[in-house]
């Protein structure tokens, strides 16, 4: 009974104290796609994530009811940093749904034209609004509607202290007439949140970087990548780890307000499933971390997770040094990576597996049409037949003015496919995951490369196949499966069947080496096919934006060299980053990974028969 009365009272007092309009509430998930499109279309950084921001502490003067209910201590505001734009999880500022949606769009427009740094929050926001309205005059009516509705909802200033009255009046004037206020008074409390403006990046939110001595180890990542819920970022803090062993603590249960305040959890030695930790993090308002010395052993275990030389693939040569793009400095750092060409260990000559033979015959029959394809060469001085279109044009032009003779015949020619293709396959450890009860990703990759080789062998195209994985920048593995000068035979089939999951996905270095190999070919058309199951990553700084930017730069270099890059992926979240890396029409996402072996030759057929 007491619990029921307490819950009813809490709901009543919270509803009375709240200044939001719940019936008109708009969730970030409802507008995330449109907001992302607006942000990037109007100049926002295309690599930045657009995501929800968790509530942050906001010290403003509260009403009596808000003090009783505990409301308005934390507010979800709009801000951005170098990695992402973070907008409120939900907006219920206005009584109308359309105005709340417009506010999301307006905040995205502001963020797209701001670098995220403030000298004076209020003055800079005024100037930002002025710049945006000058640049996009069509937004003036939208902003005026938002500003007028927002000013009507501002608190009454009659009972405020003098300094706070002046602050509130200055804010109202700045919102109605941006740029009209050049000085703001000092107050002890922050003014009521101005939802039409951006806020500075919080100092307590975001990821806490590990404090390792090795500069390359900044963000250890899980080898087997999993899908994560796109929830708001949590506030974080770092505390000192206590190793003391205290005795039993006796307390009254009524004093336990919340279990989310602090939980000493050693994730370095915890053996529970990762999903358990994710579920706990979803429920926590603030995540508290401590740095422990024994965490270094976990890092060492990852570094030592390389096979011994007797069990590893066979290295070819001393390795090749390659550059890497540093997006922070906007420059290519020379000799940054060491790429090691390798041959798969214990590969022996093998024929095509039985389960692929029927499919291979069907694909080969389709590709034989490319080999025998013939076409008419128009407007020739001589040929087998008269070119009626050329003759008609000549006849009409001659009626108007004297016209020189031209080719009036068409000739039947055989197909001449002057192209080279390099297939680059991602062999990272994530390919060891299962897609169903019978097959892993690596099995699908093997079958795809085998059928790809059978198809191109029939049509006679010049092609090569390589695989790659990595362990930091000093060990990028580049597996040779078939080079351009080598015939496709059982030796190549044996190498493909001997590939196994490797380590991480430092794709930029692999693309640069593949580009070098393709440039050496004499063909007029050069196609670089990239087969992957996830975004670029490694256990050093290559995780996140660094890897994406380096991969994009490698693709730009390949295009400048005259290559045609195309990516095929089974990553269902690839739509978030592949358009930025490859371009809108230079990638394909496989909705069903098991169909990749059949789809890969078909995609090649489409790309090369145009």
From TrEMBL:
Q: Name one Pfam family in it.
A: VWA
Give the species this sequence originates from.
Thalassotalea nanhaiensis
Q: Where is the composition biased (Basic residues)?
A: 225-236
Q: Which residues form the VWFA domain?
A: 420-607
Name of this protein:
VWA domain-containing protein
Where is the region Disordered? 215-241
Which PANTHER family is this protein grouped with?
NORD PROTEIN
